[in-house]
Amino acid sequence: MTATLSLTAAPGRVGAYARLAKLDVWDYYLALPLAWSLAGAAAWFTPAVLGTLAAFGVGTVCVVSAAVAFDDVTGHRDGSDAANYGPDAPARKLARKPLLTGELAEADAIRFGWAAASAGALLWALAAVLAPFSALWTVGLLALCLVTAVQYSWGVKLSYHGWQEVFLAGFGVGLVLVGVGLTAGAPSEFAVVQSVLFGLGPLLFGVYSNTRDADGDAAVGRKTAAVLLSRQGNKAFIVALTLAEIALIVTAAGLGAAPWWFAIAMAPAVFLRVAQLRRGVGLGDLLRARLLGLWAHRATVATLIAINLTIALGARP
């Protein structure tokens, strides 16, 4: 009987760890196909590039899983997750917090976090060894991404000391630049533009979540922009980020870093971003705005990949 119970409980346990790792939110992982598309047509299917991106990609899943697991432990300890998820559990999907539901204990989550971080570090090191290019700046940026991800809500707790927004964008930028650096060497101006657009994606759905969570975060001393700024100041901050993204798209095309038709191709993603701004800042529907932000980010990445494929294939003899 005991063996039967343990076997039937196993799938639920695995599911709890999957929810702890937030595997249903995969937007940072889109850095991998984006970096692949920037490697160039001649390198797309070479064993070195595919092996490098495979190790880097699985390692990225491990590193992000560690970061969000530690974030859940800290949020459980200080009560911010209970405050932010308790009053509106159906909309916020309380099941995504297995520490709050009691499916996992803190010790389970901590062990999982360190195991995932260790696996991620090893896989990222393997990616650097396999890579066609391993410039010092790439390895250094890889190490910075690892350390800051683990320290996001653990150790020095970067997200509690005013660095959350910087990390949300910077980590995404770093993933794309590392992927490009490992597979293609020094990034082009257009690759840098794309890495910044990619980094703005997680930031521009994170700020809406932070606005929704401002009271709970303030109560535990988590200094997000939504906590530090006034309500109107936070709205202005979100508007400024949205306009900065649109301005980057337009100026990249206008100044020659991107093809002249780049802004036209990006129009659907820009439309979604404007719709997100209207929904979140104009109408105050923060959770819907966050969802629109996810779709805007995914549309942006899909469009960038299509543009890169078009350029690379068009340049082939």
Protein model, in words:
By secondary structure, the chain is mostly helical. The protein has one domain (17-315). The protein has 16 helices and no strands. Helix 2 packs parallel to helix 9, helix 2 runs parallel beside helix 16 and helix 10 (189-212) runs antiparallel to helix 13. The radius of gyration is 20 Å and the shape is globular. Residues 1-9 have low confidence and may be disordered.
The coarse overall form would be globular
* Residue share in helix: over 70%
Structural class call reads: mainly alpha
Task: List the uncertain runs.
Answer: 1-9
Number of domains: 1
* Gap from first CA to last CA: 67 Å
Instruction: Write down the overall mean pLDDT.
Output: 92
- SSE order: HHHHHHHHHHHHHHHH
Summarize the structure.
The chain has 317 residues and is mainly alpha-helical.
